[in-house]
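TA notes, week 10

Several of you asked for a full example with nothing omitted. So below is the full record: structure tokens for the whole chain, then the designed sequence directly under it. When grading your own attempts, check the secondary structure regions first.
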């Protein structure tokens, strides 16, 4: 395992990552930092914990939405083959 120091909302975190997965971890950190920065910059939420929860919910919704779209496309493709 490798340790990588990252910054999210100007706060340092030391994260452990399996060898060879550093770029995926850094991509995830960038997504989280971007989501949290957007929420903070909107000016309605200031508490870091609340920003983190809202960012997590937004990211989870985006993932669920993509999965739903993929599932719909898969089902439509399967229906056409029948």
């Amino acid at each position: 395992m490798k340790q990588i120091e990252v910054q999210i909302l100007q706060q340092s975190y030391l994260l452990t990552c399996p060898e060879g997965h550093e770029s995926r971890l850094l991509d995830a950190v960038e997504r989280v930092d971007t989501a949290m920065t957007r929420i903070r910059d909107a000016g309605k939420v200031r508490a870091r914990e609340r920003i983190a929860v809202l960012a997590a919910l937004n990211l989870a919704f985006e993932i669920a939405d993509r999965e739903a779209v993929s599932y719909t496309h898969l089902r439509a493709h399967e229906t056409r083959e029948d």
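The first strand starts at residue 2 and ends at 8. Use that as a sanity check on your answer.
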